[in-house]
Every structure is written in C-alpha cells, then in structure tokens.
Amino acid sequence: MSVSSTPCTDASANTPPKSAVSAAGEFVKKYFNENGLFTFVRWNNFFANPPLCITREQVDEGLAIIDKALEITDEFVIQ
Fold it and tell me: What are φ and ψ of residue 37, in 5° steps?
C-alpha cells in the first residue's frame, strides 16, 4: 500500500501562501514521527509503505494518525 497526498490545485482557486504549506509539511513530518508512523515526507506529499505482513489493527492505527495530522494541518491553510 502506498499513500500519497497531493492537494488539488486549480488556477482559479485561492491557494495558501507557501509559508503555510511549508509549516504544514514540517508539522506533518514531526507529528508522524512522534506518533510512530515513519514515512517519507517531501514538499506537499507523504508516502507510507507498510510491510505486507501488516495487520488490520496496524492499518487502522496508521490511518488514524494520518487523519489526525491532516485535521490539524487544515488550520495552517484554512482562513
């Protein structure tokens, strides 16, 4: 399983300032590491590649960490 999050961009849509995106990315990286989810975070993307022997409970735990991090990062870009 590979998870990538890239925000949809539309030239006519309001986009957050780069500083908000950078701050959100740094927060996500730190939050994931502090909560035991070790991923690759690059610019506005993150990747998770769990082992094939992962259990359903571990998948749920990882997705809960991702969900909470994304919920918190909304505050960086929603005005």
Answer: -105, 105
Residue with tokens 């959100």: 24
Give the HSE-up count for residue 12: Cα atoms under 13 Å, Cβ half-sphere: 0
Lowest mean per-residue pLDDT among 14-18, 22-26, 52-56, 69-73? 14-18
Tens digit of pLDDT for each residue in 4-46?
455 555 545 555 555 555 778 888 899 999 999 988 887 778 8
DSSP letters, 47-66, are EE---TT--HHHHHHHHHHH
Please say whether the beta carbons of 70 and 5 come within 8 A.
Answer: yes
Q: Cα-flanking dihedrals φ and ψ of residue 33, to 5°?
A: -60, -45
Tokens representing 26? 């740094």
